[in-house]
Design brief:
This protein is an alpha+beta fold and about 140 residues long. The chain is globular.
């Protein structure tokens, strides 16, 4: 299955470059993306969309954008972990007509850490399993 291409590299880190959140063109046609890059793009889109902000799909998104600037507390890492898990669960439940190299079967690794000495940064590392046996990695 194809989607419009918003992310123009194979395995970018989030945040993506400023030009990536727009429709891309190749040779005068709309650029499309498929396979593992599409899975990464789907993941980036859902994690960067505040849940409830889309009136057509109010359950699409995550709580992560709303946590920007949150003070570290005992529940912050857990809330981020839960937000990522819920977003991936939404993607899994709403996969339709995806090819095996686009079908997410689950999370292999999810880690949420805060680098030592930097209270303003949180790293999310995620590896998703796909139906064809491959994985998609994301460092957010």
């Amino acid at each position: 299955m194809y989607d419009l291409a918003f992310i123009d590299t194979q395995q970018p880190d989030v945040p993506v470059n400023p030009e990536a959140n727009d429709i891309s063109f190749e040779n005068g046609d709309l650029a499309v993306i498929s396979g593992e890059p599409r899975v990464f793009q789907d993941l980036a889109k859902i994690l960067l969309t505040q849940i409830g902000s889309d009136s057509i799909a109010p359950t699409y998104g995550s709580d992560i954008p709303g946590l920007t600037g949150a003070i570290e507390g005992p529940n912050l890492m857990s809330r981020i972990n839960d937000g990522v898990s819920q977003a991936v669960s939404f993607l899994v439940a709403n996969q339709h007509a995806n090819t095996p190299n686009e079908t997410i079967t689950g999370i292999q690794v999810l880690s949420v850490t805060q680098p030592a000495g930097n209270p303003y940064e949180i790293d999310i590392n995620l590896i998703l399993n796909l139906q064809n046996g491959s994985t998609v990695e994301a460092a957010i």
